[in-house]
Design brief:
The protein has 412 residues and is an alpha/beta fold. 32% of the residues lie in helices and 26% in strands. The strands form 4 sheets. It has a 7-stranded mixed sheet. Strand 10 and strand 11 form a beta hairpin. Helix 1 packs parallel to helix 7. It is globular. The protein binds flavin-adenine dinucleotide. Flavin-adenine dinucleotide binds next to helix 1, strand 3, strand 9 and helix 7.
């Protein structure tokens, strides 16, 4: 058996590591001519970090990332609403990590080439089509500039191509454009002194006028002990452009919405103005598909279930897909049946997360407080919402996304 993995992003590299561990041969083909550390921050929630720990990556991740200590929620006046511990601090048996996407990709890449060999990652190969109906999968590729490359044959092919998947288009040529949520996002990283505990995921405000998510992704980046701090600002607006992870954003398009956010724990305008670079991304997703597996071809990660990038579940769900697919291929001599078994396990679960991210996201606490206070400061949070309600809102998202403590313990 040799599996053709298409795309060397978070899903493709994790799948490579899992298949290698399961004793299943694979090669990873990447469109980019060279693997570069791109993106900004990503969170590795406990259900995903547990899979990466099983792969022996805990130390490497702990070195590259910030180990997340807590979640904190504030309103747009800087008033504290709720905090709760995260990862091991919350009693999980694994840590939660906040990491630069590029650092995560490099940890996965180094581990994969160290274990499987450098010749197993092949850059400069953009997949254009896969023949999936015969006795083998045949993947067709082109080099940068469109020059066709020799086809590659394998037992099965897995599209880990992310949101711009060519193979998803091959399978669903009539699928419409991504669905815009009405919220546009600006993202960036700032070199800054540790904020609050220096290890929290801090969420502030609601989408009108603006919601801000802040978390550090690299520790001790200079002699002054500063961190690299990731931030994402969400604003309700009809204005947006097509999704592209690398599109540059402009300060004047979103900073005015936070112009008076001078909290005693952070001066937000100063913090944002100090950002290295600003990226812009629309909050879009696509309706869940009825099927991912067609003969010897299947979809995984963002290619299978693009979701709103809220709740830190894009990478996490891709990592869980990898585990399910690797288990299915290991447990089935028939690859077509294995791809179907993988789909049966992961398609309903990820569809639920796609829909929850639309309606009941992890920051529903902020929405609820915004609604109950009419977006005004409060005297005491206890007058607005009880601690039990806050906990219930937080726990309900974890259950849908699959990282509530009980479920993780039971699945051990
Ligand atoms: C440039 C970039 C920046 C990102 N930045 C962030 C971020 O800051 N924060 C965040 O939460 N998420 C970010 N993401 C998305 C995040 O990585 C995914 O949501 C998640 O990790 C799921 O991973 P994935 O493997 O499905 O897709 P991705 O990690 O997106 O990986 C897809 C890979 O497939 C390659 N590829 C695409 N088409 C083809 C093809 N036809 N043939 C061969 N290779 C192909 C791509 O070049 C890429 O390497 C980014 C993705 C990209 C590509």
């Amino acid at each position: 058996m040799e599996v053709i993995i298409i795309g060397a992003g978070i899903g493709g590299l994790t799948l490579g590591l899992m298949l290698h561990r399961a004793g299943i041969a694979c090669r990873i083909f990447e469109a980019a001519p060279e693997l570069k550390a791109v993106g900004v921050g990503i969170n590795i929630l406990p259900h995903a970090s547990r899979e990466l720990c099983v792969l022996g990556l805990e130390q490497a991740l702990a070195k590259a990332a910030v180990t997340t200590r807590e979640y904190c929620f504030y309103n747009r006046f800087g008033q504290h609403i709720y905090s709760e511990p995260a990862g091991r601090f919350a009693g999980y048996d694994v840590p939660q990590f906040s990491i630069h996407r590029g650092d995560l990709q490099m940890v996965l890449l180094d581990a994969f080439v160290g274990r499987a060999g450098t010749d197993k990652v092949i850059p400069g190969h953009k997949c254009t089509e896969v023949d999936y109906d015969g006795d083998e999968a045949v993947a067709h590729f082109e080099a940068a500039g469109g020059k066709p490359l020799p086809p590659v044959r394998g037992t099965a092919a897995v599209s880990c191509e992310g949101i711009h998947s060519v193979l998803r288009k091959q399978l669903y040529p009539a699928e419409g454009l991504p669905k815009y949520s009405g919220i546009n996002m600006w993202r960036g990283v700032t070199r800054w002194q540790p904020i609050l505990t220096g290890a929290g995921m801090i969420r502030v405000g609601w989408h009108h006028p603006a919601k801000l998510l802040i978390y550090p992704i690299r520790n001790g980046i200079d002699a002054q002990g500063r961190q690299l701090v990731n931030w994402v600002c969400d604003i309700e607006t009809p204005q947006y452009q097509a999704r592209d992870w690398n599109r540059r954003g402009k300060l004047e398009d979103f900073l005015p919405a936070m112009a008076d956010w001078h909290f005693d724990w952070l001066d937000v305008p100063d913090f944002i103005r100090a950002s290295d670079a600003i990226l812009e991304y629309p909050m879009v997703d696509q309706d869940p598909l009825p099927r991912w597996s067609f003969g010897r071809l299947t979809l995984l990660g963002d290619a299978a279930h693009p979701m709103y990038p809220r709740g830190a579940n894009g990478a996490a769900q891709a990592i869980l897909d990898c585990r399910a697919l690797s288990d299915a291929l290991q447990g089935n001599t028939d690859p077509v049946a294995a791809l179907k078994a993988y789909e049966a396990k992961r398609l309903p679960a990820t569809s639920e997360v796609v829909l929850a991210n639309r309606k009941a996201p992890p920051d529903a606490i902020l929405q609820e407080v915004y609604r109950r206070t009419g977006d005004k400061p409060f005297k005491s949070i206890d007058d607005v919402i009880s601690r039990e309600e806050l906990i219930a809102l937080s726990e309900s998202y974890k259950r849908v996304a699959g990282y509530d403590k009980e479920r993780l313990k039971a699945a051990r």
